[in-house]
Amino acid sequence: MNATANNDTKERILDAAVGIVLEKGFSGVGINEILKAVNVPKGSFYHWFTSKEQFGVELLKYFGGKAQAYTRKWLTKTDTIPNAYERLVAFYEARLSMTLEQDCQQGCLVSKLTAEVSSWSDAMRAEVSANYDAAISLLRRVIEEGQAQGSIRQSLDAGHTASIIHDVWLGAYLRGTAGKQVQPLREALQFVKSYLPANR
């Protein structure tokens, strides 16, 4: 099996696992269930992953990379949305729309696994934390951009504000997921809209 085929197999395993783990959680899913979904033998799994925990780390990296690419795509749309405040609001409106389209059933794998894995896997907890840090860094940059152009309040500490916004949205996501409702995310979006603008 050549390197390209090997990489394709690994990605197929991870891609299938995202949907299954979002539905059932990490602890509730067996390796065989994931492999059956992509028709891959167990030997191929252990070629790529030494344990289920290491697979979990790779899964978080895989999903986190896609999530960061999505965030970066939105937050760097300077050509179509030059106003940084409006761009940040548009990003969260898009996330809200995505949640509505999925009927609150899917969402963010990193957020879903936060509480589940943090108590028993240091490696997965570290990867969750790294994903959050990366997201906050992207938010901080667009806040700094907005402050420089005058669309976001100068009095705000950009790093602190990025953490607040991230954590407000995360909390709203977790609460909304628990109740299968979107209202917490609507409230989080309204917070972003009212907290950031320079003319508030």
TrEMBL record:
A Pfam family matched in the record: TetR_C_13
Keyword Transcription listed: yes
DNA-binding region: 30-49
Ranges where the HTH tetR-type domain occurs: 7-67
Superkingdom classification of source: Bacteria
Key word Signal present: no
Protein name as catalogued: TetR family transcriptional regulator
One Gene Ontology term of the molecular function aspect: DNA binding
Keywords tagged on the record: DNA-binding, Transcription, Transcription regulation
